[in-house]
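Contributing new complexes? Match this layout with acetamide.
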Amino acid sequence: MRAGFIQFTPVLGDIEQNILKICKLVDRTDADLVVLPELCNTGYHFTSRQEIETLAERIPYGKTTEALYQMAKAKGVYIVAGLIEKSGDQCYNASVLIGPAGYIATYRKIHLFFEETLWFDPGDREPAVHDIGICRVGLMICFDWIFPETARVLALKGADVICHCANLVLPYCQEAMVTRCLENRFFAVTANRTGTETQRGKSLHFTGKSQITGPDGSILCRGGEASEESGVVEIDPTLARNKAINPYNDVFGSRRIEYYEELMKQRPR
Ligand code: ACM
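Output block (do not edit by hand):
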């Protein structure tokens, strides 16, 4: 299968313009599964809960999900994209998985970063894996990368390909995803955004360099720092089902879970 990312610079607060751009970029990308950045239809640098509420959409009935579905159907592609989900009074930093036959799943970011913690409600569900036929997809969003538990849970649930929508401002994630892939033996598609957003004198710069990483930690494709582009590679997702490191060691089978009890506790001693 062909897995890909799209990286670009969304316009802060302009959903209509962003949807048009996203559709154009998806149309130009020849892939079976394509991942877009976190909050790709709204931009990122918010300064109030009210802004978030204005831009939030119901999933799957909102205009972004609908536009993505029309693209998925027309192109025969699976799409993962980040947006703000409105559910009751809650607003989540979410990603959707949509296929040619319609909406499949939503993930609500469980590890909110920096001022996101002021504006968004934290995800309230376990990260899940979705079998789309061509592969098993695990969803995570941006800062989830710094918690190895997120990737491990998805791996243990059978993910072949992690679809990682991102708005990265720290420089470490792309290298860290090499380790996440090595320790879990899955593929990861990190779709990051580009550009700078300035609000009330504070700037956030997004680092681009979207990346597709293989189960052996190899970087299969990496985008530029500032360019709007897509990257696509041919992958065999079944390679992610072999967890052996060598005939004696296996990233799942060689674990000594009887010695990991601390992991289940909320606070370190
Ligand atoms: C991030 O989680 N957007 C850094």
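Reviewers usually confirm one structural detail per submission. For this one: The two ends are 46 Å apart (CA to CA).
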